[in-house]
Design goal:
The structure is a homotetramer of 443-residue chains. The first copy, chain A, has helices at 36-46, 53-58, 85-88, 91-94, 106-118, 188-197, 218-231, 248-261, 270-281, 297-309, 328-333, 357-372, 389-399, 411-423; strands at residues 3-9, 18-23, 26-30, 75-79, 102-104, 127-129, 134-139, 142-149, 156-163, 166-171, 199-205, 239-242, 264-268, 292-294, 314-318, 346-349, 376-378, 403-407, 439-442. Chain A is of the alpha/beta class. In chain A, the strands form 3 sheets. The first copy, chain A, has a 7-stranded mixed β-sheet. Chain A has a 6-stranded mixed β-sheet with strand order 7-8-9-10-11-18. A 6-stranded parallel β-sheet of chain A has the order 14-13-15-12-16-17, sandwiched between helices. Chain A starts with a strand and ends with a strand. Chains in contact: A-B, A-C, A-D, B-C, B-D, C-D.
C-alpha cells in the first residue's frame, strides 16, 4: 500500500492533536499537542507536575504514539501547523525519540522554544523555520508546503504534502477571514491550485462542522470590543480586558482602542507576554512601542499601583479569561497583586468560556467575586477562530479532495463533517473516514 | 395619592404591552400590543381569526384592560412608543372604547393604519403624529415628550410624561446603538437632562437584563451579513435573505450589499412591503429606487421566474425567518410560488429564532426542506434590538429615577433588572417594583 | 473472509434499523424498520402517503438496502427481534424482493400482519413464528436462536446466529429488568452460556450508553403511576392516561390500577387496540376481560359520552402521548370526539417526549390546550425500555464478545459505547467498530 | 392593620429561609437558615471561616434581619420547621439577640445542639421541644401547632399559627408521600381541618411549582436503589453508596439492602454520623444495631482497611454526593483515607447534584477520578423531597387559604406558583404576593 494515515490523537477529543502519514516507506508526523483538561484535572487531584511522558500518555494528556511504534524508524520529519498548545505542547515529551527535524513557521518555533525554556527542557531535534506560503523538499518523494491561513494566533498554516500519490492536505486549525485584523487573508489561490493538481486526502478540523454559518471575521470582534470600550461610560473608571494569551489580533485591537481613548495600555501576565515577545522578536508586531508589558510580579505591582491611582488613564489587558486560578484577575481578587476593584470599574471578557465544567465554575466564581465589588462585567465579546460548516463546504469545493478525514473533534463533530461531505456527494466509509484516536487507514 | 401606575399587560410575559398611568385624576395609556404566541396557538387549534375583543383577552392575546375599568372616564390619551406588533397591534381592539386621540410617531401611525386597512377595521380615535424629540401639552398637568431612540425598526421613542410630580419615563423597547445603520443615535443628551430634572419613575424593558453585555450595534450585524454575502462563493447561485419584516435597518444593509455585488435586490412579502411602504411614504427611506418590491402573488411569480433563470443576478429578500407557514419561503417550498431551490443556493437567516417551541419546530422543518434540496444555510446573522444589562445600567445612571418598574419580561427577567437595580443601591419593594399583569402601585 | 457485516440502517440515527450478516456465502437480514421522523416530516410537507419504496429510501424513511445489492441472491432469511416500528415497519417495502421467509416471535408477526392489513399490502414471504428461547436450523451452517429479553413491548428477543465462526449476537432493543410487570425476566443464563461458547461479534444498541445508570425496572414506573392514580385527589374527576400504544406492560398497570380504584378502564385508539388484540389473540394477555376497547369512532363516541356523565367512574387510556395530531387527545380537544375536559380533570402522560423539535412543539401545544381547560397534567411518569451504561457493561461481561458493533444510535451514542468498551479493555478500530449506515466490515 | 408578614430571607433564592409574622403587636419568627453557596464561595475565596454575623449577612449567607429591627422587642418565639441547614443553621448567629425560646421538634433541636457543639458556640435561648402533631400556647393571642409532614429528613413539620385573624400556615419544606420509608404519612386530616377552620395566609415552598407532577414517593427511590444493589453483578466488588447526610429514610434503605445482600453496612463521615446519632438518641431509629458508624479518622481507617481486604462483604455508606472536597469519597481518592478503588467496584450516587456550577464541576471531577480507577458509577438514584405542582394544587385545595405567599424559590419559581394559584382563581397582587427578600405585606 502506498498511503497510510494514522490518527494518533485529537480524533476522539478536541486536543492532543497528532497525525502520522506514511508514504511508501517514509513517515511524516503532523502536530504534537496536549489535551489541557486532562492536565488540569490531574494537577487538581495530585497537586504537582513535571510528569513523565508515559504518565502523560496514560492520563490522556498527550497523544499515545505507541500505535506508530513500528513506523518510528521511518519518520522523516515533524511538521507543526501553528503555535497553539493543543498542537505543539507535547513536542517536549514526544519529539525527542524521533531524532528528526521539527518544521514550523518562525512564530511557532519561537513559542516552542519559550515553552522548552520555561520547563527547563531540551530537545535533540533540529528546528527548521518555514515561512508561510513556501515549500521545501523533505525527501525525494515528499515536498512539504506551508500555506498561510487565518486563525486566532500568528503565522498559522495548512500543511500540504506533495507525494507521488497526490497532495495530502492537513488543515487544523483555520477560519476563512477576509478582513483579518492582523496578518494576511487566506491563500485561497493556492488552495484552488492544489484542488486542480489533485488532493488525495484532506485531514480537516470539524469543531464547528455542525454550525450552519460562515464564521464571522475578527473584524466583527473588533467592532464589538470597540463598541464596549468607546460606547459605555468609563470616565474615571478602571478598564480591564482579558482574552486568550496567544490571541495577538485581539490584543492589537485593544492597543488601538487604547490609543483612541487616550488610555495607556498595560499588559500583565507571563503567558501573554511570551506570545507578544515571540511576535516582536520576529518583527511581526511592534506592540511595545505603545504599551508596557509586565511579566514579573514586582513590575506588575508597580503598574497596578499606578492604575489604582489613575484608573481613568489605563486599559489593563491581562489573563483570567477562563477564570483560571493563578491568572492575573484571580491574583488581584485574592490580594496577591495590589489593586482594589471598585464600583463600576469595567472587566471585559473578550473570549468565550471553553465549555468544560471546571471552566464554567471558575468563571462563575470569578464573576461572583467581581460583582461583590460592584464591577461591571462585559462577556462574550468574541468571534471564533474555527471554520463553520459553510466555510468547510467552500474549502472542500476549493480543494476537491478524493478522501476526507475529519480531525479535531469528538464523535458528533466528526459525524457533522461526515454529513456535510455526504451532502457534497461523498460517502462515509467509502471516501470519508470517521476515525478515532489510534486508528489507521490505508489507501 | 398623586401618581398611580397600573401594569396592564406585558409584565408577566414578553408581549401584549400596556401600561396605564394616573396623575391625580388624569390617566394616560402607553402602548397596546398583542401577545403573538397566544394568537398563533389559538389559530392552530381553532383554524380561524377575526375574534371578538373579549375572546382575545380571554386567550391572553391582548391586554386585559378591565383592571382599569374605573379609570376609563379619566383617560386623556393613548401613546404608542414604536411600531412593533407587541406594542400597537391591540389598538384596533381596545382603543375605540377610550375615545381619546392616539399619539405616535408618523411611522408608527402609518403601520397602524395599514393594520386597520388589512383587517378592514375602523377606529373613532383621532391620530396625532408626534415627531421624535418633540413634545406637546396633553393636559395642563401633563406634557408628553417623545425621545428618539435606537431599536430594530424606525422612529422608535421613549416617552416622557412631565408631571407635577416629576417625569415618568417609559422606555420600551430600545438599545443604545452608537453606530446605527439607519436613523439617528440615541438622544443621550436629553436623557441626561431628564435625569437632572428629576425622574419620578422609570418603566423600562428588562428582556436582556440578565445578559452581561452591551448589546452590539446594528453595524455588527451589517459586518456579519456582508461577510457572508461577499465572502462566500455564490457565483451563479441564488441568494435569499430573510429577516423580520419591520427591520428596516437590516433591509437597508441587504440593499447596499446587492449594489456592491451587482445583484438586483427584490423584496417579496406583504408584511415586509407594508413596512417599507410606510417608511417611503414618509420619506424616511427610498428603497424602491434600487429594488423591486412585490406584495401580490402574480408579481412575485413573475419575479421568481426571472430569478430561476438568472439566479446569479438577484438577491431575494423575503419573509420566513421563523419558518412560519404562509411565509414566502414556506410557499416556495410548498410549490405555491414558483422557484426551484437547487444545490448550493444560499438562504441567509438574518434573524434569531424567537424561542418558542412552535418557532423552533417550524424553523427546523423549514431548514430540513431546504437541506433536502442541498441549499446552503447561514443562520444567526443577527444582533438584538434590546438593551443588555450594561446598557440598562448606563441608562439608570443617566436618568437617576426615584422608582423603577421592570417591564416587557417574565419573572426571571424582572428579577434580573431588580438585581441590577439593587447593585445600584435601589431596593426591591422600596423603590423597585416587580409587578405582574394587572397590578397597581401608588406613590 | 468468513464473516462480513453490513450496517444497512440505524447506525447513523435512531430508527430504520437493518443489519445484514454474511457467513461465507449465506446472508441473514436482521430487522427492517422505519425512521418515523422522516415520514412525519415528509407528510407534513407533502400531505399524502403511500409512497413508493425508492422514495421512502430517498427521504431516509427506510433502510437503503442497495448497499447489499450483490448479496441479494445469498439471503436465506429475515429475522425480526421485536415488534416496534423502527424494527419491523419497513418489512412491507423491502422484504418482498428477498423471497425468503420472515422469522419472528408470534407477537411480532401478528403486529406485522396488522400493519400489512392496514396498508392493504401483501408480501410473498412466508411467516415463520419462533417462540422466545427456542432455536431452529436456518441453513446447515447457521442456527438461529431467539433469546427472551425485557423491553417495552411483548416477546422481545435478542437473536443469536450460531455459525462455524462463533455466535453473532444481535441485541436491539432491550433492558435488564429483574422485576418486569408483564412477561419473563431476561434469560441471563443463556446469555452467559453464549459467552462461554464464544461470541464472535456483538451488535448492540447504544442509545443510553452515555447514561451512568442501570435502567430502572418497569416496576418503578408502576409505583410512580399508582402514586399519581391513588395518591392525588381525583374523586368525581375524569382521569385520562396516555402512553405508547405498544407498551403492554404499562397498559397492564393502568388496568390493575383501575380495578383497585373501582374505575372502569376504557381504551381508545386504533394503534393501542392493534397491539392489545395481537397479544390477546396469542393468549399473552386477557385485558378485554376487564376493559372495553374502542377502535372505531362510533364506539369511542359512545364511551366518551358515558365518561362525560360519569367522569369519576372511568379511567380512559388513549393515544396522544407525543401530542401528535390525529391522536385521541388531539381529537377530543378539536371536538372531533365528544368530551369536554373540565377543571381538575386529570391527564397523565406515562411516557417521555421523544426529543424531536416537532414532538416538543406538539406536546407543548397539546398541554397548552389542556391547561386552558384547567386540566391537571402529570408528566414523565415513565422509565425507559433501553439499557443504561451499566446494564451494557454487565451484558458485555456476560457475553464476552470478541468484537463489538454499536447499533441504534447517532455518533455520540456510538462513541459512548466505544468508550465503555475501551474501559473494558477493548479498542476502537481493533475490535470495536463505530460504523455508519451503509458500511461493511469483514473478519 | 392586624397581620403583617416580612419575607426576611429565602424569597429571592433557595436558602437562608426566614419569615417574620406580626400579629397585632406580637411577632413570631419562622426558620433561620443559611444560603450554603454563599459560604462555600466565600471560603473558596478567603480560605477561612468563623465569620462575624454582619459579614455573613453581607455576603448573603444568612438572612438580613435588619429589616425587622423595629419588630425586635415584639418577638415572642422562634419556630423551626425542620432540621435542614437552610432552615436552622443561621440560628447560632441570629437567635441570640432575640432572647426568646426556640421551638422545634426534638430531632431538629438535637441537630441544632450538635451544630452549636461543633462550632463551640452557645445560645442564651431556651430550647423547647415540640412533638409533631401537637400544639402549644405561645401567647394568649397565638397558639402554635406543628403538623407532621413528609420530607427528606425526620420530624419535619408545617407550622400553623392560630390567631384571631385565622390560621397562618408555614409550609417549608414538604412533599406528600403516601408510602414513606421512615416516619408517618402526612397529616392530611389536620390540613383539611385547618382549611375548614379558615387559613388566612399560606406561606409555601415553590421550588418545583413549575414541575407538572406529583413528586414520587421515597418508596420509588428505594426500588431504584435496590434494583441497582440487587440487580447488578457485584460479587467480590466494593460497593459504596453516597447520599445527603441528613437523609435518614435513604440511609434506612441502604441498611435494609445490606441485610438482604448479607453485606455489612458501614457508615463513614461526621455529618452523616451526626444525623444518625440525633435520631438514635431520640429512639427514632436504631441503625447502630445493624451497622458500624465511624466519625473519627482512625476508626474510618480501620474499617476501610477491612473493606479493602473483604470488598465483597461490605456496603460503605458515606459522604461525597456533591463531589465536595473534604468528603469521604474525596479523601479516599486523595489518599487521605486508605482504600484503593479497583476495576468494577461500585459507587452509587443516591442523590441529585444540586444545580450550582461549583457542584457540577466538583461532581464531574470526582467521577473522572473514579473512572480513571475503572469504578462503575450509578447516578441519579433519587427522588426529590419537595412538592411538585400537582401536590401544591392538592395542598391549596385542602387548606383553601385566603392569601398565598410563595417561599423558598427564585423569581421564576415564585411566578410558577403564582400561575398555579391563578389557575385556581387566585390573583397575583390581590391575594397572591410574589415577594422578595426584605419585603413586607400587611393585611
Amino acid at each position: 500500500m502506498s498511503v497510510e494515515i494514522c490518527t494518533v490523537g485529537g480524533f476522539s477529543e478536541v486536543g492532543r492533536n497528532m497525525t502520522a502519514i506514511k508514504i511508501d516507506d517514509e513517515v511524516v508526523l503532523l502536530d504534537m499537542g496536549i489535551f489541557l483538561p486532562a492536565i488540569v484535572s490531574f494537577e487538581a487531584e495530585e497537586g504537582h507536575r513535571n510528569l513523565p511522558t508515559q504518565k502523560l500518555i496514560d492520563i490522556g494528556a498527550i497523544p499515545d504514539d505507541h500505535v506508530i511504534e513500528s513506523w518510528k524508524p521511518l519518520v522523516k520529519g515533524i511538521l507543526l501547523g501553528h503555535a497553539h498548545l493543543d498542537h505543539i505542547a507535547a513536542v517536549p515529551y514526544l519529539a525527542g525519540k524521533y531524532k528528526v527535524p521539527l518544521y514550523a513557521t518562525p512564530f511557532s518555533l519561537e513559542i516552542l522554544k519559550a515553552i522548552l525554556h520555561d520547563d527547563e527542557m531540551k530537545l535533540p531535534n533540529r528546528f527548521v523555520p518555514v515561512q508561510p506560503n513556501t515549500s521545501f523538499t523533505l525527501t525525494p518523494n515528499i515536498t512539504v508546503e506551508f500555506i498561510g491561513i487565518t486563525h486566532s494566533t500568528l503565522q498559522c498554516s495548512m500543511i500540504a504534502l506533495h507525494t507521488p500519490y497526490g497532495v495530502i492536505l492537513y488543515a487544523c486549525d483555520f477560519k476563512f477571514d477576509n478582513t483579518p485584523v492582523l496578518g494576511d487573508k487566506p491563500n485561497y489561490k493556492r488552495l484552488q491550485e492544489l484542488g486542480e493538481k489533485g488532493v488525495h486526502t484532506l485531514i480537516v478540523e470539524c469543531l464547528y462542522a455542525h454550525k450552519e454559518m460562515k464564521t464571522p471575521s475578527e473584524k466583527v470582534a473588533k467592532e464589538m470590543l470597540q463598541d464596549v470600550l468607546y460606547g459605555v461610560e468609563n470616565k474615571g473608571k478602571a478598564v480591564f480586558v482579558t482574552t486568550f494569551g496567544s490571541h495577538l489580533p485581539r490584543i492589537k485591537t485593544v492597543i488601538e482602542s487604547g490609543k483612541k481613548l487616550k488610555r495607556k495600555v498595560v499588559i500583565l501576565g507571563r503567558s501573554m507576554g511570551k506570545y507578544i515577545k515571540a511576535a516582536e522578536d520576529l518583527g511581526l508586531v511592534h506592540f511595545s512601542r505603545d504599551v508596557e508589558i509586565a511579566t514579573y510580579k514586582s513590575h506588575m505591582k508597580k503598574i497596578l499601583n499606578d492604575v489604582e491611582k489613575n484608573r481613568g488613564k489605563y486599559i489593563v489587558l491581562c489573563t483570567g479569561s477562563q477564570g483560571e486560578p493563578g491568572s492575573i484577575l484571580d491574583k488581584i481578587l485574592s490580594e496577591e497583586l495590589p489593586f482594589n476593584f471598585g464600583e463600576e470599574d469595567h472587566v471585559v471578557f473578550s473570549c468565550k468560556t471553553i465549555p468544560a465544567a471546571i471552566n464554567i465554575a471558575n468563571r462563575e466564581a470569578l464573576e461572583a467575586r467581581l460583582k461583590k465589588r460592584k464591577v461591571r462585567i462585559f462577556t462574550e465579546i468574541h468571534v471564533s477562530g474555527h471554520a463553520g460548516r459553510e466555510d468547510l463546504r467552500d474549502f472542500i469545493n476549493m480543494t476537491k479532495p478524493k478522501h476526507i478525514i475529519p480531525a479535531h473533534g469528538d464523535a458528533s463533530m466528526k459525524e457533522a463533517l461526515g454529513s456535510l461531505a455526504e451532502e457534497m456527494n461523498y460517502k462515509i466509509g467509502t471516501n470519508v473516514f470517521l476515525m478515532s484516536d489510534g486508528q489507521k487507514v490505508a489507501f
